[in-house]
Amino acid sequence: MTERNMKLALEEAKRVVGMIEADELTAEQKKAIHDDSIANFNENVNPGWLEYRKSVSTDAAFVEWEDDNEVFKDLNGTEFIDCLGGFGIFACGHGNPEIKKTVMAQLDRYALHSQELVDPLRGYLAKLLAMITPGDLQYSFFTNGGAEAIEMALKLARLATGGRWYISTVGAFHGKSMGAISMGGKAAYREDYIPMIQQVQHVEYGNAAATEAAVKNLVAVGEKVAGIIVEPIQGEGGVIIPPDGYLKDLRAIADKYGCCLIFDEIQTGMGRTGTMWRADYEGVTPDIMTYGKATSGGLVPITGIIARPWTYEKSGVGTGTECKMFDNPWILGSPTFGGNPMACAAFISTIRYMLENDIPGMSKAKGEYYMKGLKKLQEKYPTVLTTFRGSGMLICMEFPEAEVGYEVTKGLFSRKVMTAGTLVNAKTVRIEPPITQSYETIDKVLEALDGAIADAKKAFNL
Ligand SMILES: Cc1ncc(COP(=O)(O)O)c(C=O)c1O
Q1: Which fold does the domain 98-356 belong to in CATH?
Q2: 348 CA from centroid of ligand 1 (Å)
Q3: 180 Cβ partners below 8 Å, 6+ apart?
């Protein structure tokens, strides 16, 4: 780094810190942030992101600056109703004041842990998770992102069983790290990285018989399966709800063949689908469960896994070593920021808020309200809104083709409602708002949808 560059970087950092710390921005600062954002994304992030966002917002350079309960605000304070909820992050709303209070108290005390002493919040959080998750799920390991949690689940399944193979599902989404993407069920996300983890078989989602056949065939040729990994409802895949009994059947298959049943509840967990975990809906206990997104309280990222005792107790048996997880507690990983005090404080406070306010029950009731509204819209515009489905506040609408979906999301955005399709397709558009969204706001969203669908009908002559 040259001396001149260091000087320039210091000036730039000071200018940005000044804007972050400003109580109010001047008109020049607002314009600067808007223009800088376009230039910075084009030159230093990836111009593709601006192009991609154009498909959602009519203004490629819509810049978010504040959030508050149900809304995002731009630099001028214009409010957009958040119907995407960060794909599940904002279950308890944006900037929830009760959760923020806990986080701020912890920030003032100490934000990150020593890495060597015993950090109490990690223990409290692990205990609480054992209390609110199904069955005898007991041991937690905390990570920072969803994909990282998946990596831990995959590794633990190998340690616990000595198996090497995984069964995953077509259409699945488990994140984009190398292990997680190996489990992924969408070609567009995978094909550039092949070969990845080779020992994966993808079977049809919702088809327990196909799952059993895959495990059985592997066993027949001398292979050993470590785990069956599924989302209890596929989120990114387009809110695909499997037939009742599917999760129970997978439990029976895992028991029969001695492999781990892994539920990825990163999107479905924490009240999103109308129960605290989707696993609760069928009364099934997985061997390993991942969680994330809403666990952050919308404030500080935290993800992780929780596992049944046998997975820890038997770890290493496959390699002839006694109990690797207890003997070598770092064997799964030791992420520097995993389970840090700020994140644990946010998660603990989120659990309190969810239990105190019955967020799962709220999600169920409001989800049903949404479905009634969508049914009316579907009857009114059957050629545009071809179908819709959901559980709790995890809902999706289907349109005849992606272009129609984009048109509807654009129409919603121009009516100050934000939502989006999946990352690569807007044929299905998700509604995944803060569960705290008011009924009054839901009515506003349904009204905006009515207008946006009517416009799309006209535009595509449907
Ligand atoms: C079910 C599921 N698993 C894993 C992930 C990956 O999480 P992250 O994006 O935090 O890595 C996601 C993200 O959308 C998800 O929906």
Answers
A1: Aspartate Aminotransferase; domain 2 (3.40.640)
A2: 21
A3: 146, 147, 150, 151, 154, 174
